[in-house]
Specification:
Length: about 500
């Protein structure tokens, strides 16, 4: 068997362009969070325009996350093999085209489908963007760069609701998608000027692993969303769940066989999941998303439906939670570079998010922005301190040739967290409201912000927030335990690769 070189993820001829690479990747990381957080503000207007509510309306956001999650790992691994810039370019093209379609559809199901295609494109941009930065920068510079990545993502989260809220009120919800199309076109153009990074030796592509992973994860996430709609013991939930388990089990068997025989490169190195330190950072990434997705996605609907706020005003309120995500990542990186243990910072972040969700249970009809400030700032502070350090810390534990795989794995965790928490938080709200008003259709209207019953809606919010707070406290304990164990240094994998000609970067 041949052994991969120590630094196989070398750039193809054409020279280094670190500043350009950073600029294009940051633009992608600005746009994608904006498209997520901004779309949540537009949901009530989309529902009214397309006569949609409940699950079909939430799938405008859930479908994006589900598709992105399912393709993230595969996109990262394919980027390692075929070129990270190439996969990023294809992802940006698909994201831009599908977002353009989203701006013109006339039916909620078509919008859901277009958003799912946008999510597939976003998978390529996010997975390969992070791995390109990992290949371009090293040492303290890498920590600073990933902090800027967190800052930029925070900027998108912070101003997505405000920007989209302004567009929704002024020009309608379709204008928000057209704005994201323009940004996608700029990203697409910028990728053509970036350097290419890929493995110098290309093993056989793990097609069976890619197929079983994408299908299995997509079915698992679909089963979770279907459970909130049809019931957790209903056939439409159990059938895809059983098939998902079978496919994911098959995926694990395929990856183990490839790792043992060296006949090709697995889509996922299962050794990553067995490394306690890497797993600890992955659990932390899950916690940051789990603790913020519910409030970020559903609070604008509550404020518009219960308090009568405009989309713009609801977006401005969310700045209390998202501005710290913009401001604090450089502080987190500075603390780590000055010797503060990164694991302590992550555990503190999870505890702050748990406390913020518990504090937000003071929510009530007529609540003022000032009363929301403290809990939202606490949640935002927790996310902002650690969002910029997770990728740099986790990818320092992997071989350079597997940076795309590691980035894809982390982003799969993030995207899966978004899809799962959107569904679980929404299901908790819906079930709690239904138990109080006695009608499923009425509960769907209430949770979409158009059905009144403000006291019942508020009580449901408190149940969901206490649940999230307890989950974050548990995740903080698990993360601390995993990161307190010594971590293993990355070891290059041996495969039976096939040589291929290098391509130029242009």
């Amino acid at each position: 068997m041949a052994t991969e070189p120590k630094v196989p993820a070398a750039p193809t001829p054409g020279g280094h362009r670190p500043a350009l690479t950073l600029t294009v990747v940051l633009l992608g990381m600005l746009t994608l969070p904006m498209a997520m957080s901004g779309t949540t503000v537009a949901l009530p207007r989309i529902g009214a325009d397309l006569d949609a509510s409940g699950a079909s309306l939430q799938w405008v956001v859930v479908g994006y996350f589900l598709a992105a999650s399912s393709f993230m790992l595969v996109a990262g691994s394919l980027g390692d093999l075929y070129g990270r810039r190439r996969v990023l370019t294809l992802g940006a093209a698909l994201y831009t085209a599908a977002t353009l379609a989203s701006a013109f559809v006339q039916h909620i199901l078509l919008l859901d489908a277009a958003r799912a295609l946008s999510g597939i494109g976003a998978a390529g941009v996010m997975a390969c963007g992070g791995s390109l930065l990992a290949a371009t920068f090293t040492g303290p510079a890498r920590t600073r760069v990933f902090a800027s990545l967190g800052t930029t993502a925070g900027l998108g989260l912070a101003f997505g609701p405000t920007f989209s809220g302004w567009l929704v009120d002024a020009l309608g919800w379709r204008a928000t998608f057209l704005a994201y199309v323009a940004a996608g076109a700029v990203i697409l153009a910028g990728t053509r000027l970036m350097d290419e990074y890929r493995a110098e030796l290309r093993p056989r592509v793990d097609k069976a692993g890619a197929t079983t992973f994408i299908t299995g994860l997509a079915l698992a996430l679909f089963a979770i969303t279907q459970g909130s709609k049809s019931g957790w013991t209903a056939l439409p939930t159990l059938a895809p769940a059983a098939l998902a388990l079978a496919l994911l089990y098959t995926f694990v068997r395929i990856e183990k066989r490839l790792a043992k025989t060296g006949a090709g490169r697995p889509i996922l190195d299962l050794g990553l999941a067995r490394n306690p330190a890497f797993l600890g950072w992955a659990v932390g990434a899950f916690g940051l998303g789990a603790g913020t997705t519910g409030a970020l996605t559903f609070l604008p609907t509550y404020l518009q439906g219960v308090n009568g706020s405009t989309a713009r005003a609801a977006g401005l309120t969310l700045l209390l939670m998202t501005v710290p995500v913009l401001a604090l990542p450089p502080l987190g990186a500075r603390l780590v570079n000055r010797g503060v243990p990164a694991r302590h910072l992550l555990v503190l972040s999870l505890l702050l998010i748990a406390a913020g969700n518990a504090w937000l249970t003071t929510l009530h009809p007529g609540i003022t922005t000032a009363a929301l400030a403290a809990p939202l700032l606490t949640i935002g502070t927790g996310q902002g301190l650690s969002i910029g350090i997770i990728d740099a810390q986790a990818m320092s534990m992997t071989a350079p040739s597997e940076a795309g795989m590691a980035s894809g794995f982390l982003n799969t965790i993030r995207g899966g967290t978004g899809a799962v928490m959107l569904t679980v938080f929404g299901a908790l709200l819906l079930a709690s409201v239904e138990s109080r008003v006695g009608s499923g259709p009425l509960a769907a209207r209430v949770t979409s912000g158009t059905g009144g019953h403000t006291e019942e809606f508020t009580a449901a919010w408190r149940v969901a927030l206490w649940t999230v707070s307890a989950l974050l406290a548990a995740l903080a304990a698990v993360t601390y335990a995993l990161l307190s164990r010594p971590h293993r240094a990355p070891t290059p994998r041996t495969t039976a690769p096939r040589p291929h000609p290098q391509t130029t970067s242009h």
